[in-house]
Amino acid sequence: MTNPAETPSAKTPAGKPRIGLYATCLVDLFRPSVGFAAVKLLEDAGCVVEVPSQTCCGQPAYNNGDRATARALALVVMQAFEGYDYVVIPSGSCGGMMARHYPELFAGEPDMAAKAQAFADKCHELVSFLTDVLMVTKVTARYPGTVTYHDSCSGLRELGVAAQPRQLLASVEGLTLTEMAENDVCCGFGGTFAVKYGEISNAIVSQKVDNIVATGAPTLLAGDLGCLMNMAGKLSRQGSKVQVRHVAEVLAGMTDAPPIGVGKS
């Protein structure tokens, strides 16, 4: 990802929401095409989008009990995105961290807690922002074929993202959605969970992959790159030809990049 702006623009056209796109570490390092797809979707919806210099949201530290590091990173993120109308994140896990857990990091500090809550209130997962805030009901994209969709844990349970991607996928020309069994069950990634509890993680993703393959769909979609990379890895190790993509790429009609886990993302 490139950084077209370091600070919010003072020349935003009147009436257009000014969006700070939080690209996420995984998108920046492994799948920049997701960031570019997010920009296209937001611009098509009438937003002005900028990508300020940014760092980790602090979720890995938070999940491992290192609240001091998580708090320090949250302060950096809040400062970087301070001047934007909204902060939009193409990830349920990073979005959940920022929208739900930032205020917890400043409990007992009334002024900072209020600031963190105000920041959290303007943070939104990408697809839910399009549908729930901007009231987008359809996209102008084409993706011929059948897909199945995995509901990532953080997006589903912390942010309520479930119907929104399906609503927009229904408007993609040529696309048919076939639901997998247990579509809302964890893929086994869970960030450092997959490292700490490798055997359990492998058992979980094995069942998930069985459910994916059973649909017969040649493409798997989800809204969280960590989950997608985990499932793509397992599918590849099993010799499956199922293609794996972030839902934003399909909704934006930007599927020129190889599927996740294939070639250079």
Features:
265 residues; alpha/beta; Rossmann fold; four-stranded parallel beta sheet; 13 helices; globular; disordered N terminus
Secondary structure elements and their pairing?
Elements: E1 18-21, H1 25-30, H2 32-44, E2 48-50, H3 59-63, H4 67-80, E3 86-89, H5 92-105, H6 110-121, E4 123-125, H7 126-133, E5 142-149, H8 153-159, H9 163-169, E6 173-177, H10 193-196, H11 198-214, E7 219-222, H12 225-237, E8 243-246, H13 247-251
Parallel strand pairs: 1-2, 1-3, 3-4, 5-6, 5-7, 7-8
Overview of the structural elements:
The protein is α/β, with parallel strands linked by helices. It has two domains: 115 residues, Rossmann fold; 115 residues, 3-Layer(aba) Sandwich (Rossmann fold). 47% of the residues lie in helices and 13% in strands. It is built from 13 helices and eight strands. It has a four-stranded parallel β-sheet with strand order 2-1-3-4, sandwiched between helices. A four-stranded parallel β-sheet has the order 6-5-7-8. Strand 7, helix 12 and strand 8 form a beta-alpha-beta unit. Helix 5 crosses helix 8 and helix 11 crosses helix 12. The chain is globular. The N terminus is likely disordered.
